[in-house]
Amino acid sequence: MKFMTLTLMSVLVTLSGCSTSEIQLKKNEDAINFSKRVIKGNSSALGKLVASAMTKTTQKSSYTYFTGETIPLNNDINGIRTQFATHCSSVGGKFEGGACKKIGSNDTVLYFVNLKHTGKIYNTTTYGAVKHVGISTISPKKGLNDPAYRKAIRDLGYISPTHEKLINRLDQQLANKKSEMRQRVLNEKLDRHNRELPYKKKIGAKICTVRDNINYIGYVERIAEEKVQIRISHAHVVNYPSMSPGGFKPSIIWANVSIWNLCE
Question: Given a cut of 70, is residue 47 above it in pLDDT?
Fold first, then answer.
């Protein structure tokens, strides 16, 4: 199939409303060299010098690891992601979550890219403060299933479908456990309420309840079905019996006994 030079969308990235730099795809260009051109292609004239000084290429036996920072005037990390998606497509892949996956496979990674704002700021007179975008790319040397390469992309952020299923299963187990704990707490409160109910509905019973970290203490004076008349005589901050809330005054209220507990 005859290769045609692709112009990577002058991209009016609709997500940001700003345009990204034009980058020409080159025939059979690997991900590392493309990453280097993305660094320069998205930076301003002066920014290119700054960005170029912050690149590093590390050669490992199983893969090549490139890191760098670009200084796009529009701060458009989505536009840069689109550039990599287009490059990935040109080498027979589909870009998903930083992974350029081989078409027809959900776990064969041709290369992996991690994009993020680094927290650094490049100040310009025209565009103001511009955020640096960090680009980290790993490309294999030996093979796509090489253990060292697979570990490297996992360390950089790649989550395989198997790992994702495991995470989802663990998340579900955690959610189930939290739900069980909530239900246990509710059951314990219900059991306590049922045990204490006869005693709470006695004249003179000392009962208390907590609202907004304040413990209110009162005494039952009258009873009417589920509600009781309570004379609230004291209030203090939870765990600090001698510390009363400002403005507190004793009062008499009618309340549902279910939200009050027996207290010593």
Answer: no
